[in-house]
Task: inverse folding
């Protein structure tokens, strides 16, 4: 039997996510009073706050996990956080002459805050829907949450990226169950706020290749282990 969808919980989650985002990016209430890195985090905190509030108010089960299927937290942390932080900050040093390690981990935490909402909560809540329908709903809600609603070519491209990101990140979450893993993948786009050069595109492709290979190999290992146990 397909799990029942709690539309009330989803509504509460989304209202909180939108309100927090609006306060952060459409007003000066926060930006004028906090450090830039704190401001980055506050821009993405809404989905996490909304998720935890909805779970508490509606007494929902909370399947969210930082490590997911991995035996401990160290493995996904090293592969999906430490590796990109080292690679990308090294690239930044050669391109811009800076080594922004604090910025790198700020971006990763920002990705985690979003992923708690979009994957950890919303994707779990929409499990009862057909896969394409679930992806479409998450993509549209995620796009609207950014509050860039002008129907410009750039925003239409962004909507396309959001849709394929919802599908791809959702696949990784389904395979790993790890919020650390999907936060790392999510953060790739957010690292390059100045646009993507050829060198940066090569880094993105290389990291995605490493991650996809790692996810596939580890998934097969877990599957084989379960088969032996049964």
Result:
């Amino acid at each position: 039997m397909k799990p029942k969808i709690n539309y009330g919980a989803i509504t509460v989650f989304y209202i909180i996510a939108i309100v927090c985002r609006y306060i952060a990016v459409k007003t000066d209430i926060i930006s004028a009073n906090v450090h830039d890195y704190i401001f980055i985090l506050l821009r993405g905190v809404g989905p996490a706050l909304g998720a935890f509030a909805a779970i508490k108010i509606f007494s929902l089960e909370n399947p969210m996990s930082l490590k997911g299927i991995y035996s401990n937290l160290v493995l996904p942390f090293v592969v999906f956080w430490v590796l990109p932080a080292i690679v990308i900050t090294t690239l930044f040093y050669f391109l811009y002459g800076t080594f922004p390690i604090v910025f790198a981990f700020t971006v990763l935490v920002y990705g985690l805050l979003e992923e708690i909402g979009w994957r950890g909560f919303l994707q779990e809540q929409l499990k009862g829907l057909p896969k394409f329908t679930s992806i479409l709903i998450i993509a549209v809600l995620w796009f609207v949450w950014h509050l860039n609603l002008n129907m410009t070519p750039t925003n239409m491209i962004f909507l396309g990226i959001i849709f394929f990101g919802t599908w791809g990140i959702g696949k990784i979450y389904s395979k790993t169950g790890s919020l650390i893993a999907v936060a790392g993948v999510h953060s790739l786009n957010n690292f390059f706020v100045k646009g993507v050069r050829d060198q940066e595109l090569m880094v993105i492709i290389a990291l995605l290749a490493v991650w996809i290979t790692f996810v596939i190999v580890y998934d097969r290992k877990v599957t084989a282990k379960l088969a032996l146990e049964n």
Observations:
- Residues 7-229 form one domain.
- The radius of gyration is 18 Å.
- Residues 224 and 230 are 10 Å apart (CA to CA).
- The first helix runs from residue 7 to 26.
